[in-house]
Amino acid sequence: MSSHDQPSLKGREVQRTFDKVTDYYDRMNRLMTLGRHAAWCRDVAASAGVPPGGSLLDIATGTGVIALAALERYPGSAVFAVDFSERMLAEAANKPGASAVTWQHADANDLPFDDESFDAVTHGYLLRNVDDVERVLEEQHRVLKPGGRVVILETCPPRGLLRYPVSLGVRVMIPLLGQMVARDRESYAYLQRSTLGFMTPQEVVAILRRVGFVSMAWKKRFFGTHMIISARKR
Ligand SMILES: C[S@@+](CC[C@H](N)C(=O)[O-])C[C@H]1O[C@@H](n2cnc3c(N)ncnc32)[C@H](O)[C@@H]1O
């Protein structure tokens, strides 16, 4: 039995947190990003560059926003979406158009797919929730076909002049919105901590390089608190 058959302690806590916030997830995301999240997900899908009739895997799909954007962008392609929260998957699978996506329960540490299965892999807000970013990116490298792309949407700590006001805003607003909208300050305090505590794009790019990816590119969004990174498997 591999050590990843069951999520780690942190994994189980993350799973519980997302099971708890499912009902409010989309609404909170719209509020926290002032409505920008859907556009970033479309950008992630567009950057994946899936060829006609190709395949895409969206990991940590949550309520499926990236997977559904990919389906719209690449009609006729095979879109697979995985998450280890059953409640998030059920929410995703109930959305309009969702029956064309293959939804599957899986842990990002141990993907249930053969080597070189997909033309593209995407994920939003996965990496800051895992114990070992390098291992998770290695798994993605394994399931990508040669030449395939990975596209990552993630939060990052703000830098430069805006660093202090933006950090303060995140620290105050996210738990407050969590309390007001979801009546769950604790779960959103976790999201606030993981947002400010995650890596810079340069740090993620360095890991992508170690894992074997090439052609890395990144851009920041939303006052430097979000990043979209893409890379290619040789
Ligand atoms: C913040 S949500 C993001 C959902 C979606 N990607 C988006 O952009 O809205 C993070 C998701 O990652 C999932 N997740 C976290 N760690 C995971 C892991 N190790 N394996 C699979 N899913 C994971 C959680 O269950 C949750 O649904």
From TrEMBL:
Enzyme Commission number: 2.1.1.163
Coiled coil residues, start to end: none
Molecular-function GO term, any one: demethylmenaquinone methyltransferase activity
PROSITE patterns cross-referenced by the UniProt entry: SAM_MT_UBIE
UniProt-listed GO biological process terms: menaquinone biosynthetic process; methylation
Pathway: Quinol/quinone metabolism; menaquinone biosynthesis; menaquinol from 1,4-dihydroxy-2-naphthoate: step 2/2
Reactions catalysed: a 2-demethylmenaquinol + S-adenosyl-L-methionine = a menaquinol + S-adenosyl-L-homocysteine + H(+)
Keyword annotations: Menaquinone biosynthesis, Methyltransferase, S-adenosyl-L-methionine, Transferase, Ubiquinone
InterPro entries: SAM-dependent_MTases_sf, UbiE/COQ5_MeTrFase
Family matches, as NCBIfam families: MenG_MenH_UbiE (TIGR01934)
Function: Methyltransferase required for the conversion of demethylmenaquinol (DMKH2) to menaquinol (MKH2).
Annotated family: Belongs to the class I-like SAM-binding methyltransferase superfamily. MenG/UbiE family.
Name of the molecule in the record: Demethylmenaquinone methyltransferase
Taxonomic lineage from the root: Bacteria, Bacillati, Actinomycetota, Actinomycetes, Streptosporangiales
Gene this protein is translated from: menG
